[in-house]
Amino acid sequence: MESLDPEQTGFITVENFTSLAEHHELQLDPSKLEMLLALVQSNEHGHVCYQELIELLNSKRSSSFRRAIANGRRTLQREILLDETGLGVYKRFVRYVAYEILPCETDRRWYFHQNRLCPPPVFMAVITIVQIMVFMCYGVMLNKWVLQTYQPDFMKSPLVYHPGHRAQIWRFFSYMFMHVGLEQLGFNALLQLMIGVPLEMVHGILRISLLYMAGVIAGSLTVSITDMRAPVVGGSGGVYALCSAHLANVVMNWAGMKCPYKLLRMILALVCMSSEVGRAVWLRFSPPLPSSGPQPSFMAHLSGAVVGISMGLLILRSYEESLHKQCSWWVLIFSFVTFLLFAIFWNIFAYELLGVQIPPPP
């Protein structure tokens, strides 16, 4: 690369840049080559940043590179990914996911051309399978498939979060494997597969698992602060984090989203999510059967939605950009850590100071 930047200024002349793009030995994806040329045409100072070239060749994009593409005077060829023909089943599915998740045509084509089957989106699939297996085990053991929380043996599970077992830290996230009944499991599993898997395909296992687990942990911690006598079961905190993040991303990028019937689908999603929250509130305050203690709280749903709108929206907006380079990301991390520390001290001291009468653990 010394021949391209002999004076080591950190910039490459447009002539050298164009020559490299047209005669390079690397087998770049078509979208990368078009973006290289678009970046050249967008530059007004006669040079291109060397680091941007390295990031592109390494399948990374900085925010400055994206701005250069967005402000470029040259229009990329084949503007609509839907014009691609002769695709196999998997590639058609990838194109469908791109239009479902990404709001920018450049991002869609970038994702489409660089997508590989490995690694597969295993996180959401594994979480869903484990939840189904745990539910099946307790269903067979209790011979009960709805309103399982009314069975004492169900609430004795070491996975359920119960305020009387707050010292067992794993319960703050293991509760996501337990469900009230078949209807709650079906709702969560369906959303995890329909929304979580496409999100994981586009944004990767690390970001989506972080978002999901943040919703789960925030759910149990919020319940321990706001509904101190209630247990928690179900993965609704993580599910609502995913759903609210995706819906917020669609709203923020409404004009760019090309998924069909997006308004109707959003209305249906909001109705279903609101119905699930209403059902959880009804079970909490007006249980249909007599119970020996409080029923599971609904606050995990709401806190999961808050996590999705705040943390999730930033994760989904920063497609293929490093989160640690963004100030807003560190503000969110600081806020979450502050909330975590507050919740820890609350769980240690507040129950005794406020004299909360915790129902005896099963």
Strand content: under 5%
- How much is the average pLDDT? 81
What share of the residues lie within helices?
55-70%
| Strand adjacency order, main sheet | 1-2
**Helix and strand composition category:** mainly alpha
Quantity of strands, as a count: 2
Distance between the termini: 68 Å
Description:
Helix 5 packs across helix 10 and helix 7 packs antiparallel against helix 10. The longest helix is centred in the C-terminal third of the chain and has 28 residues. With 362 residues, this protein is an all-alpha fold. The protein is elongated and about 80 Å long. It has 15 helices and 2 strands. Strands 1-2 form a two-stranded antiparallel sheet.
Q: Topology, please?
A:
Blueprint: E1 11-13, H1 14-23, H2 30-42, E2 47-49, H3 50-57, H4 63-70, H5 89-101, H6 105-114, H7 122-142, H8 152-155, H9 171-174, H10 182-203, H11 205-226, H12 236-252, H13 262-285, H14 299-317, H15 327-354
Antiparallel strand pairs: 1-2
